[in-house]
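Justification of computing resources. Each target in the renewal requires a structure prediction run like the one illustrated here; the chain below, 269 residues long, is used simply to show the kind of job we budget for.
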Amino acid sequence: MERSRDITDLLSIMAALRHPETGCAWDVQQSFASIAPYTVEEAYEVVDAIGRGDLEDLQDELGDLLLQVVFHARIAEEQGAFDFGHVVEAITAKMIRRHPHVFGAVRELSPEQVKGLWANIKEGEKAARQARRGLEPSRHLDEVPRNHPALTQALKLQNRAAAVGFDWPDLAPVAAKVREEIDEVVDAEATGTRSEIEDEIGDLLFAVVNLARHVDVDPEAALRRGNDKFRRRFGHIETSLAAQGRSLGEATLAEMEDLWGDAKAGEKA
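Resulting structure tokens:
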């Protein structure tokens, strides 16, 4: 087969890879569960390309993520559950349904009104889905998946709680809560068990996510920036020592802190 811009060719490639007799032995072995980690990994690589501003890489990573969707859809088709066309149909219907201000009679809504409308429509969809399946109504926070990354999960839990009024009105008590949780970590480290220390660290991280939310900062994005900053500054330490003919293990903490300060000052300049 040759390169193509047609999605049907990608579907054909996946079907060929999954053929039980002539396909790829590895692809044939896979299941929803076995490729799920790759799906998560590809999503993160898309985010990484966006963060680096590398549009060429973003194109490739979006292709890798699309392949994951095609892979899952193919497995479902083999099981007689649904196929890729059903996936497209479902998301098309959902986008039209959730945007009556674009595709319906409702017009000229503010961003906040659109957000509220989206939430109401989504809640209605969930209730209808549960009724159709004969399920009991879920609790307000049950919609937040437990397998989300911890920071993202914390942010979603806080947003859903805030949507029904369970939230501080301004930044001051949020910042005070962060300071309180720091003190409790210190106290637990001095007198508590390992489990108690872990609990307090969890409370502190949850409070920091809440602080980020109140200043309209995505904690995942902020932490990625912090990680990149640490890599960059630590790299400066390593490069500077190498220029002196020394390794990281040969430097004192004070020397490394001085070089860290140099890197920080250089970035600010």
